[in-house]
Amino acid sequence: MSSNKLKLISLLALPAALIYGAAVSAEEMVMIPQGSVTPFFLKKDSVDSNAASKVKVDAFWIDAAPVTNREFQAFVSQHPDWHPTNIKKIFSDAHYLDHWKNTQGADGTASLDTPNPDAPVVNVSWFAAASYCEAQDKRLPSTDEWEYTLNDNERDKENLQKQIISWYSVPNRAPLAVKGQPANGFGVFDLAGLIWEWTADFNSYMAPPDSRNSGDKTQFCGSGSLSASNLDDYAAFMRYSYRESLKGSFTGKNLGFRCAKDAK
Amino acid sequence: MKTTLKHKLLLSLILACSYPAFADNHEHHHHPQQAAVAAPSTDSVFNITDNWTAANGSSFQLSALGGKPTVIAMVYTSCQYVCPLTVQNIKRIERSLSVAQAANTNFALFSLDPERAPPAKLAEFAKLHNITNPSWTLAQGNAGPIRKLAVTLGVKYKKVESGDYEHDATIFILDKDGVVKYQADAMSKNMNGASDALKALLK
Are A13 and A154 in contact (CB under 8 A)? Predict the structure, then answer.
């Protein structure tokens, strides 16, 4: 019954996708209307836990699809500082754009990845991603914005979570071209299924509640500690812990990005 | 029924953790390139070219801190507890130096808050904490440069509803080329390690 209901809801949501899809700019950005999102780790001691657990997100533009190899190639040719041979070590590890190279470097084995120009660019550090967006007069989306876009006003939530979990449990593959799967209700493609994405504030403080007492780390300035809002949401848990594990110079074979912009 | 689903999810989680779709390039602990130590000149935070505003209103880039070692921390000027302690600890490091050594060191505080730290506020903060030595720089910047510096240094922070910030409290010691040489827990009562690291750079 409830699954039928969900199907019905997702059918009803399709026209909404078309409506939102209409708000697409020349650079293929989609306007995301303002709303609120419940981040995975939250303040524990909020007065009204329900209201306080939601974070308001202002309207913003977001790229309809992740940035592709083609697009990033154009950026690199215009900004030689971000060419693999020139990039400063502080801005990326040694695997920057590995999939663009013919060989894997030191060990000399040939790369199996053929860069598909329409696949999301991967093996990019946070610094490279942030610079790309800046060069387009955009910025990286905040974690709240990204999660809000994925959340899709809870449209077909259960299916989305299942789909995400099943994707998370398969090994790495070279990502396929963008827009191979239908867009979500906002008209945004490939938030799950192809790559993981950088967010502007991936290094937000997202500690578990007991960290306040953990030895040498007393890192709290604002009041309160953080705790998980929805322990059932393993998919969210994995995204937040993945982000937590990253450093700005890290790259990953399945880690790319898309840009966002204030709605103004 | 629900339990079964939960177990399934948990299993997926375990599988995913051991066999992750989100593997980054840092799983390869044995990668030969990871053993290589980066040349200091390319590791410098001075590669960041964003503009900052000092408490006196002047504009500068991080490279302006070059030529001398720098003791640096990111703070939140409206905060009640952690940041004053950070400042106290940096002063403790400063006091451990000879007059000549202190004159040869930069001390820099960068505000985490792009909204609540105009230069006047920085000057007020300096006054409150009795920071008068010209070796000190208090700096304020836009949200982008703040995030970039924090990511570079590995400082995690988050703005919470009250407008306050939760953040790592770490004191960094940079060499004259802007390379991070030492990190100290800003909440520790013992700054000897930081002090020794700094003195080694001043030799």
Answer: no
Alpha helices in B42-181 (DSSP H): 82-95, 99-103, 119-128, 143-153
pLDDT digits (tens, 9 = 90+) for B54-63: 998 999 999 9
B144 to A139: CB separation less than 8 angstroms, yes or no: yes
Verify whether the Cβ–Cβ distance B13 to A237 is below 8 Å: yes
The count of other CB atoms within 10 Å of the CB of residue A74 is 13
Q: Is B101 helix (H, G, I), strand (E, B) or coil?
A: helix
Q: Which residues pair with B167 in a beta bridge?
A: B157
φ, ψ at A209 (rounded to 5°): -60, -25
Q: Which of B10, B74, B17, B167 is nearest to A226 (CA)?
A: B167
Q: 3-state DSSP call for residue A110?
A: strand
**pTM for this predicted structure:** 0.78
> Scanning the structure block, which residue is given the tokens 């750079």?
B201
Cβ-Cβ contacts under 8 Å, A203 against chain B = 147, 150-151, 154-157
pLDDT per residue over A192-232, tens digit each? Answer: 889 999 999 998 865 543 344 333 333 444 333 344 455 45
Q: Which strands make up the sheet holding B52-54, listed edge to edge? A: B59-60, B52-54, B136-140, B106-111, B70-75, B170-174, B180-185
* Dihedral over Cα of A163, A168, A173, A177: its sign: positive
Q: Nearest-5° angle of CA B171, CA B177, CA B179?
A: 45
Q: In angstroms, rounded to a whole number, what is the distance separating the alpha carbons of residues B113 and B110?
A: 9
Joined together, the tokens standing for residue A181 give 């799967």
What is the value of ipTM here, to two decimals? Answer: 0.78
CB A255 within 8 A of CB B26: no
pLDDT digits (tens, 9 = 90+) for B37-49: 333 345 899 999 9
Cβ proximity of A28 and A64 under 8 Å: yes
Cβ-defined contact of A203 to B151 (cutoff 8 Å): yes
Is the Cβ–Cβ distance between A244 and A199 less than 8 Å?
no
Report chain B residues whose CB lies below 8 A from the CB of A217: 185, 187
List pLDDT tens digits, range B174-191.
Answer: 999 999 999 999 888 899
Query: What's A257's DSSP letter?
Result: -
Chains A and B form CB pairs within 8 A to the count of: 163
Pick the residue from chain A with its C-alpha nearest to B38.
A89
Average pLDDT, stretch A108-128? Answer: 77
